[in-house]
Amino acid sequence: MMSRIYEDIIKTKDTYSEDGFAYLYIQRLNENIEKFIGNKANADLTSIVYGYSVGFKELYSPFLPRIIDWLRQGILNKEYFNDIRTHQLTLSNALAFAHWIYTGNNDILLWKKAIYWRDQLLQDVDYSKGFDSESKENLALDILRYIQAKEYDRAIKHYEWATRGEVFQFSSHLNNYNLAYAYCLHFAEGQFSVEELEKAGRAFLKRQLKELYLMGRPTEMLYWLKTMCDARDKEYTPEEVIYTFYEFLEDKDKPDFIKELLENR
């Protein structure tokens, strides 16, 4: 898929053909933008993350101010279809990530606004019957969202509530929500080293990140990649955070242009 994204961006950039991936689409030329403007911006953010992931930051970054503006409009106008809470949560998450990619700064207040909408949804959530795969994934994202907002105490209480007081046990192979919780304990209390966390999460992240990338959900990868990079000693640019995705791919799965791109960085 990485090769297809790269080749289609090149083709579209050079020829402006309508069948190219993302670049012509993201320009939204002569388009009526009044309806669901926030939703369109959220889709465009997906194109941004894909574009950055194959080395086209300079080509895609000029669209970020417009995406941020559209997301803000969608939030201000209380845009929604089906459930306003779900849609506003999606837009709020996207705005927090878009702002970070554009500025390099994590805006805690934006994450707190996203948490507000998630709290509204949690009023209808019942974990008493146990976890299915979707519940586990949602719990993990809840914790990662709290981490970005630096709401560590709330993350801990949320984990305890959702797991009904389950005693957390660190191991060398953690699932999604336990890995997120382990990172929370690292940031909140200094528990576990970066090396321990990355070893414990590697098996899950190798599978999960590749799946998200191939399923058209690359922005969701950023929850994990940003949290992982935030825990490391080095300071990462948003572009560098996105490139850490390739740490979880085998060399045989990396196209030659990706290997060259990483070497040059």
Shape: globular
Work out the helicity level. 55-70%
Number of domains: 2
The proportion of strand residues reads under 5%
- Determine the mean pLDDT: 90
Distance between the termini: 21 Å
> How many β strands by DSSP?
0
Structural class: mainly alpha
Q: How would you sum up this structure, described in words?
A:
- The chain is mostly helical.
- The protein has two domains: 1-104, no CATH class; 125-265, no CATH class.
- The protein has 14 helices and no strands.
- The protein has helices at 2-15, 23-27, 37-53, 57-60, 64-76, 84-103, 108-122, 133-148, 152-162, 176-189, 194-214, 218-231, 238-243, 256-264.
Spell out the blueprint of helices and strands.
Blueprint: H1 2-15, H2 23-27, H3 37-53, H4 57-60, H5 64-76, H6 84-103, H7 108-122, H8 133-148, H9 152-162, H10 176-189, H11 194-214, H12 218-231, H13 238-243, H14 256-264
Comma- or semicolon-separated keywords:
265 residues, mainly alpha, 2 domains, 0% strand, globular
How would you summarize what this structure contains?
The chain has 265 residues and is mostly helical. Helices cover 68% and strands 0% of the residues.
